[in-house]
């Protein structure tokens, strides 16, 4: 972005061209937007994460700006079961305030809940947390990022003392000699990342992928480990077992920089490769080869993603891979380490500044008296008036409309009717509410149930910041004004605060909100105190923690110490345990879920882009040819996938790239093809992560 363009923006005149970032995943690819003859054109730019590349979702992102289905006026439902009708903003906001007031008067402040999203800017995530805790005085706030990053976050916090998805720049991937990807398919979920993997391969490095499917990423690997879903923890322990028995552990690093290794050593002693082969299906020789490939090179990286994390033992599974990385002495060395591939666009920043049930801005804990005192001072309130911790996302949604749960819900940037596990149950809970308010740019499946729907701005119409998968804080820049009748989430929160009796005013200008966020986060684990919009504009973003406006940021963590009381990382012994729902005679197959290249999350946006819809028009169920033959199913035959919670119906896709005991369905579609009608709502006891990635099912012709 030129200095002239920045000056024009500050003067109130929109530029004809801005440098910004893609609205989709956490790679946050750099792009340029140009206003041309009433249209918005997208072009890639050379940014450190995408290096001039974009995927097809990024290329087509501007098609939603003027989409015929875009919401440009509030919608109201006059009676239960009635149709949504257009309304003015005053009527819509008054309806919300009246409804919230009635619920709070009858049931108290905790009868109101807020549900956010991992795609909201840092400013919106921060404002949403403040709105819930100060304006509404409710403890009930969480967000859909709970279903994305929470297991890796919990594991990172307990091992390293901090949760930053990648504690090193993404460019380190290209410098590694061995890269182990566990439950990750970036060739489809974030294709420009593969440029870094290509650099690794061209340097002679090795790519090893752990995935029950031979995905587009796995097909590029030098070695593909194809375990039974839910056995990744055992695989990780077996890798560490091999490292121990073959003398590959970095004993000096373990002694100098960690604690707790002896108990882990005793735990993994029983994970013989031959035994783990029987359990997981991964050949013992491949386990041994993987351990050696990681331990006998100068630089190695272990990355996990949703495939390893979305389990009722997700925290322990990630911990097992962190243990492996620590035993090999990887964290803190350039070109080496452990990291997690964040999914949603602001999945990192969204969990740092107050959307999570147990957190305050700066990644502070809400039950920490010092944290409460600091943030309350910034907010101008008594710390004793701040509510305590709420409950994680699924528990929150599952309690809606019940005698002890919230009776009103405000949803910003999420579509739980499609994205929640055991989705039919959550849909029923939403219908039981006294008041459901949804802020979105399109009529999502959740918006269709709402009493009030509010139209909001898109990424090309708003300024703010995002924090990508590296912990790099970036600038989102507006190219144009939103359509008449559309407001930003910040403006909506400020307008509601103005109308609610006794509420403290909220700023609606994103720069002003960010300045407040800086003060609230200062001194916390995710310290943004030294980050300013101008500083971001002057470079390719700023990595947190950055406490000093004149001091350096931290692209790479753990070089000298870990942010724990004694500066050492913590090993934690973890044992494999079976999936929450084992297969049986009635449900003899494993179902796993995931994404496809042309769609994103619940599909609210991407399903409305014509070229993406043509590339991926609907749901499907992947079956191995042997399984299809046993079922008498041909390619394209409609099938039913049935679990104890519900069923999905979609055409069969016959492929040898999946295990014969496992079926796969993408989760982007609603209706009959809704994968989350089937998925298990068993939760990780630490993170609250649902077991999206494995449940017991049967498959039959529809």
Automatic annotation (TrEMBL):
Name used for this protein in its record: Molybdopterin oxidoreductase family protein
Keyword field: 4Fe-4S, Iron, Iron-sulfur, Metal-binding
4Fe-4S Mo/W bis-MGD-type domain segment(s): 15-67
Superkingdom of origin organism: Bacteria
Source organism: Micromonospora maritima
InterPro entries, per database record: Asp_de-COase-like_dom_sf, MoPterin_dinucl-bd_dom, Mopterin_OxRdtase, Mopterin_OxRdtase_4Fe-4S_dom, Prok_molybdopt-oxidoreductase
Coiled coil: none
Keyword Isomerase belongs to the record: no
Keyword presence, 4Fe-4S: yes
């Amino acid at each position: 972005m030129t200095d002239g363009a920045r000056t024009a923006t500050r003067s109130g005149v929109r530029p004809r061209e801005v440098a910004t970032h893609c609205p989709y995943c956490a790679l946050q690819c750099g792009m340029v937007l140009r206003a041309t003859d009433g249209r918005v054109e997208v072009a890639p730019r050379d940014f450190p994460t995408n290096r001039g590349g974009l995927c097809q979702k990024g290329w087509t992102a501007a098609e939603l700006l003027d989409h015929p289905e875009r919401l440009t006026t509030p919608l109201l439902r006059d009676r239960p079961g009635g149709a949504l009708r257009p309304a003015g903003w005053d009527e819509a906001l008054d309806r919300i305030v009246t409804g919230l007031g009635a619920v709070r008067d009858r049931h108290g402040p905790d009868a109101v809940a807020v549900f956010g999203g991992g795609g909201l800017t840092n400013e919106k995530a921060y404002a949403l947390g403040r709105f819930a805790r100060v304006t509404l005085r409710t403890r009930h706030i969480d967000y859909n990022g709970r279903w994305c990053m929470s297991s890796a976050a919990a594991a990172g916090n307990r091992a390293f003392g901090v949760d930053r998805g990648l504690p090193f720049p993404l460019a380190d991937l290209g410098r590694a000699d061995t890269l182990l990807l566990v439950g990750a398919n970036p060739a489809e979920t974030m294709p420009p990342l593969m440029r870094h993997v290509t650099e690794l391969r061209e340097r002679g490095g090795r790519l090893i992928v752990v995935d029950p499917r031979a995905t587009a990423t796995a097909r590029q690997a030098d070695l593909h480990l194809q375990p039974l879903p839910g056995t990744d923890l055992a695989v990780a322990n077996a890798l560490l077992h091999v490292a121990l028995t073959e003398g590959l552990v970095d004993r000096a690093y373990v002694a100098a920089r960690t604690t707790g290794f002896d108990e882990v050593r005793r735990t993994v002693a029983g994970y013989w490769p031959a035994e783990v082969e029987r359990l997981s299906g991964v050949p013992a020789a491949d386990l041994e080869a993987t351990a050696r490939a990681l331990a006998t090179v100068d630089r190695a990286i272990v990355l996990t993603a949703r495939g390893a994390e979305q389990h009722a033992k997700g925290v322990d599974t990630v911990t097992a891979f962190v243990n492996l990385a620590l035993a090999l002495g990887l964290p803190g060395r350039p070109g080496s380490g452990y990291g997690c591939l964040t999914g949603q666009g602001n999945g990192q920043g969204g969990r740092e500044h107050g959307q999570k049930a147990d957190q305050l801005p700066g990644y502070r804990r809400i039950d920490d008296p010092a944290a409460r005192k600091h943030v309350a001072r910034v907010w101008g309130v008594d710390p004793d008036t701040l509510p305590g911790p709420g409950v994680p996302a699924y528990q929150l949604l599952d309690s809606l409309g019940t005698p002890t749960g919230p009776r009103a819900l405000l949803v910003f940037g999420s579509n739980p009717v499609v994205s929640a596990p055991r989705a039919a149950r959550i849909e029923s809970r939403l219908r039981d509410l006294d008041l459901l308010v949804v802020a979105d740019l399109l009529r999502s499946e959740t918006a269709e149930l709402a009493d009030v729907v509010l139209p909001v701005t898109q990424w090309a119409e708003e300024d703010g910041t995002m924090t990508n998968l590296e912990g790099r804080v970036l600038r989102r820049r507006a190219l144009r004004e939103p359509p008449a009748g559309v407001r930003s989430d910040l403006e909506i929160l400020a307008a509601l605060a103005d109308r609610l009796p006794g509420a403290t005013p909220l700023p609606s200008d994103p720069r002003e909100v960010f300045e407040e966020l800086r003060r609230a986060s200062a001194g916390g684990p995710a310290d943004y105190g030294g980050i300013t919009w101008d500083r971001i504009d002057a470079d390719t973003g700023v990595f947190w923690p950055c406490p000093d406006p004149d001091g350096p940021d931290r692209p790479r963590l753990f070089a000298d110490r870990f942010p724990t009381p004694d500066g050492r990382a913590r090993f934690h012994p973890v044992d494999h345990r079976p999936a929450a729902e084992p297969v049986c005679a009635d449900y003899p197959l494993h179902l796993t879920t995931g994404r496809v290249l042309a769609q994103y999350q619940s599909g609210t946006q991407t399903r409305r882009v014509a070229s993406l819809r043509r590339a991926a028009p609907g749901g499907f169920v992947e079956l191995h040819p042997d399984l299809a033959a046993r079922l008498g199913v041909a390619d394209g035959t409609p099938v039913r996938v049935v679990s104890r919670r519900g069923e999905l119906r979609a055409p069969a896709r016959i492929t040898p790239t999946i295990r014969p005991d496992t079926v796969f369905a993408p989760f982007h579609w609603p209706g009959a093809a809704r994968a989350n009608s089937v998925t298990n709502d068993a939760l990780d006891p630490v993170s609250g992560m649902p077991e999206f990635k494995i449940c017991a099912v049967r498959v039959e012709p529809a």
